[in-house]
Specification:
The protein has helices spanning 7-55, 115-127, 242-245; strands at residues 57-61, 76-80, 94-98, 137-144, 149-152, 160-161, 164-165, 182-185, 190-194, 216-217, 221-230, 236-237. By secondary structure, it is of the alpha+beta class. The chain folds into 2 domains: 1-55; 58-245, Ribbon (Umud Fragment, subunit A). A hairpin with a 2-residue loop joins strand 6 and strand 7 (164-165). Helix 1 (7-55) crosses helix 2.
Length: 253
């Protein structure tokens, strides 16, 4: 005689299958929720980075030795974009600016890159970790602001600003303040800039025939560099050497 099947088992079977399916749905729902949350976080981070990069901060790398020893080749710097539109640019500040015209010469033709590389570069540029237009910018130190008369050099081989000689501790060791004589008055709304590596810097001194006549108008300024962010052993705040310029008199009206 065949044994009767347990009626409770027959009842528990469908419920067990239902619970299994419910658990599978919950698991899939949790994975989907995780994917959505991760996507939202990534998009939000990119949007925030885009806003910060567009209006507040940008990252640039140093392609040349014109700012040695302050900035080394391939250093990365963070730039405050609120300068000079919100915060004024001062003598001694390290400034990043677009080519005012003729400083960089003819730009080389860009080679086509792989689509994946272009996408990667675009994402990094949004986050501020890359600057695709880095080669179109320059980095120098502000020596004169609008109205200043900047002269090289006095009898002690020092640059003077509005008649006051300055001693520049930031210039590269062994460099003269300038091997080129000049006597200029900076137009209002412009800046006279020089590299710290005075013997190897194509700065304001060498562009008197360009459209800006060697001066950098504020409209070309991207911002003030205030920190070296990479490599790790170079991380430091950038000094604007206020003591060097504190006794410089205001320009004559």
């Amino acid at each position: 005689m065949a044994k009767n099947k347990d009626p409770e088992r027959r009842i528990r079977g469908p419920f067990k299958n239902a619970r299994r399916k419910l658990n599978e749905v919950k698991k899939k729902s949790a994975i989907l929720s995780l994917v959505i949350d991760t996507a939202v976080i990534l998009v939000s981070a990119l949007v925030i980075s885009f806003v910060i990069k567009t209006f507040f901060l940008r990252s640039f790398y140093i392609p040349s030795g014109s700012m040695l020893e302050t900035l080394q080749i391939n250093d990365r710097i963070i730039v405050n974009e609120l300068v000079p539109n919100v915060v004024p640019l001062q003598r001694g500040d390290v400034v990043v600016f677009k080519d005012p015209g003729g400083w960089l010469g003819t730009m080389p033709v860009q080679k086509p890159t792989h689509p994946l590389a272009q996408i990667s570069e675009w994402i990094l540029s949004i986050s501020g970790l890359s600057a695709p237009d880095n080669d179109q910018h320059l980095v120098k130190r502000v020596i004169g602001v609008g109205g200043d008369r900047v002269v090289c050099c006095d009898v002690n081989n020092r640059i003077t600003i509005n008649g006051k000689a300055i001693v520049e501790p930031y210039i590269a060791k062994g460099s003269n303040p300038s091997n080129t004589e000049f006597d200029v008055t900076v137009p209002i709304g412009s800046f006279w800039v020089m590299g710290d590596n005075r013997g190897n810097s194509e700065d304001s001194r060498y562009h008197p025939t360009t459209p800006g006549k060697g001066f950098v108008a504020s409209s070309f300024v991207v911002g003030r560099a205030f920190v070296i962010s990479w490599p790790f052993n170079h991380i430091t705040w950038l000094d604007d050497y206020t003591d060097v310029f504190k006794n410089v008199p205001a320009p004559k009206p």
